[in-house]
């Protein structure tokens, strides 16, 4: 029965401030949607990183007659050199156990033909021009420098290739985008916070007579705050639900229907990541409503 | 019921004290007039009793509780024992007479059945039977003040504080309001009334406390408004 009065108060409050309430809902909607996208972008970068780093291996290419690397002397790499190189790689602590695979000229040529099967270049290349190599899997893909420097320059080693040096700039760029999205959504969330606080201030001003009488007759602070809290939470929830819907639509149409079809090899964020993001969004939305409302109404209730 | 012990109050940013070394004891069931010119400290006195402000020095006991030691979350509870009436009535214009009175009970969480029973009773007590569905705008000043008194009294407070309740009313209407306050006093409620109204004070012959520049300059039982020089 107490709830009745509170709910009728809530209805009156929402009606009175309809335009402000809509403004709050829209701000929360947009800012939370952007925030959720940033969360998902973060997940996506992590997924891609894991994807790529898993496949990362260091390729140690060995000398042919024509190669001009530091460890080459214009002759084919000898079996003795190859054994020595293999030993150095295997004894390095960063090499994964059983992580060394040799690729012979023949295998390299087959791979080459497969990769460029539609290109005229295949006919100009012979098996002899291929480089023998060791492919090394790492214990921890982040730690590659040690092995690279240990192997580079050994007699018979032409070049050491590490995919990371190509991937890292890409991930740096993605990280920049991610941070940008977080900052933008953070600013929007801050704007939402201040807007809610202003809306509550206006609502409290519109109800100052009632509030004055409530205080006079001894209504508890919580009772006085409750309609404001409910109003703000309701607005935040509507905004959050709209934002979650927007995010789901975005994931469905952009990721599931387009990206996943086009880039099948990559892993993409899916339902579980989106669900997690929406949970966080709802929680953030509610905090966004409760904190400023609580602080603003407290100021009005100071005795 | 209300005791001031060496109470001083200086408002923030002011050098002059609004109240200075006030010692007053008001017993349960007393009717007390608080008189004095504007700025003499009457309103400060009442606000301190309501714990709208803290004392700068000294202690105030209300119904056995030291207001300085009252946790802020207990203040609402304390105020439920004090009814308050003002010169400007402070009614909610969009609520009817009955709703205005019921509001005071609703917001402290009284059950609906209790409200339905109590509100007509108190409206009858203040002489507003049959007007429960009127809006404040449709009532005379005296009637509006009766609504305010009904609202202040509906929770049966131990203390009724009235700040110039007849300030906006003509003498005949004021007399009716005073009779009502007297009737409420007779139910055992302590009444403290700040006023400028000489004839009312002289007529009622109740205790008079006079304030001047924050000091108590006179405290007489069965007193009149001013000294007869």
TrEMBL record, chain A:
It comes from the Bacteria. Part of the ABC transporter FtsEX involved in cellular division. This is Cell division protein FtsX. It comes from Kribbella antibiotica. GO terms for biological process: cell division. It is found in: Cell membrane. The keyword Membrane applies. The keyword Cell cycle applies.
UniProtKB/TrEMBL annotation, chain B:
One of its GO terms (molecular function) is ATP binding. One of its GO terms (cellular component) is plasma membrane. GO terms for biological process: cell division. Residues 2-228 form the ABC transporter domain. InterPro entries: AAA+_ATPase, ABC_transporter-like_ATP-bd, ABC_transporter-like_CS, ABC_transpr_LolD-like, Cell_div_FtsE, P-loop_NTPase. Keywords: ATP-binding, Cell cycle, Cell division, Cell membrane, Membrane, Nucleotide-binding. It comes from the Bacteria. It holds the Pfam family ABC_tran. Part of the ABC transporter FtsEX involved in cellular division. Has ATPase activity. Homodimer. Forms a membrane-associated complex with FtsX. Belongs to the ABC transporter superfamily. This is Cell division ATP-binding protein FtsE. It comes from Kribbella antibiotica.
């Amino acid at each position: 029965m107490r709830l009745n009065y509170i709910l009728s108060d809530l209805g009156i409050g929402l009606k009175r401030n309809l335009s402000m309430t809509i403004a709050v809902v829209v701000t929360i909607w947009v800012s939370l949607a952007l925030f959720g996208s940033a969360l998902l972008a973060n997940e996506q970068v992590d997924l891609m990183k894991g994807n790529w780093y898993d496949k990362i291996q260091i390729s140690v290419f060995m000398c042919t007659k024509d190669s001009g690397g530091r460890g080459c002397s214009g002759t084919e790499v000898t079996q003795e050199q190859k054994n020595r190189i293999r030993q150095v790689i295997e004894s390095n602590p960063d090499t994964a156990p059983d992580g060394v695979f040799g690729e012979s000229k023949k295998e390299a040529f087959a791979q080459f033909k497969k990769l460029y099967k539609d290109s005229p270049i295949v006919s100009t290349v012979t098996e002899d021009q291929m480089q023998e190599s060791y492919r090394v899997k790492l214990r921890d893909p982040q730690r590659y420098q040690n092995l690279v420097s240990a192997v580079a320059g050994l007699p018979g080693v032409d070049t050491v290739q590490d995919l990371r040096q190509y991937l890292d700039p890409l991930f740096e760029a993605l990280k920049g985008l991610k941070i940008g999205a977080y900052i933008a959504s953070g600013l929007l969330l801050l704007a939402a916070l201040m807007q809610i606080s202003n809306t509550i201030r206006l609502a409290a001003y519109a109800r100052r007579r009632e509030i004055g009488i409530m205080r006079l007759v001894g209504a508890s602070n919580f009772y006085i705050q409750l309609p404001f809290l409910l109003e703000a939470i309701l607005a935040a929830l509507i905004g959050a639900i709209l934002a979650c819907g927007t995010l789901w639509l975005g994931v469905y149409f952009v990721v599931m229907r387009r990206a996943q079809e086009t880039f099948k090899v990559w892993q993409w964020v899916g339902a579980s990541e989106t669900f997690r993001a929406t949970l966080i969004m709802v929680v953030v939305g509610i905090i966004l409503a409760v904190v400023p409302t609580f602080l603003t109404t407290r100021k009005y209730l100071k005795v | 019921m209300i005791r001031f012990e060496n109470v001083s109050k200086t408002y923030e940013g002011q050098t002059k004290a609004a109240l200075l070394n006030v010692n007053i004891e008001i017993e349960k069931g007393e009717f007390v007039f608080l008189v004095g010119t504007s700025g003499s400290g009457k309103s400060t006195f009442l606000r301190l009793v309501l714990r709208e402000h803290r004392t700068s020095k000294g202690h105030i006991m209300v119904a056995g509780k030291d207001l300085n030691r009252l946790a802020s979350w207990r203040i609402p509870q304390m105020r439920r024992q004090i009814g308050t009436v003002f010169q400007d009535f402070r009614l909610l214009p969009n609520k009817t007479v009955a709703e205005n009175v019921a509001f005071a009970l609703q917001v402290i969480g009284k059950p609906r059945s209790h409200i339905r029973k109590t509100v007509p009773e108190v409206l009858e007590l203040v002489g507003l039977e049959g007007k429960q569905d009127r809006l404040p705008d449709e009532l005379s000043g005296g009637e509006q003040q009766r609504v305010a008194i009904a609202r202040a009294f509906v929770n049966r407070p131990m203390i009724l504080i009235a700040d110039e309740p007849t300030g906006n009313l003509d003498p005949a209407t004021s007399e009716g309001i005073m009779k009502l306050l007297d009737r409420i006093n007779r139910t055992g409620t302590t009444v403290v009334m700040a006023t400028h109204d000489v004839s009312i004070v002289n007529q009622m012959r109740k205790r008079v406390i006079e304030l001047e520049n924050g000091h108590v300059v006179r405290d007489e039982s069965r007193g009149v408004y001013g000294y007869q020089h």
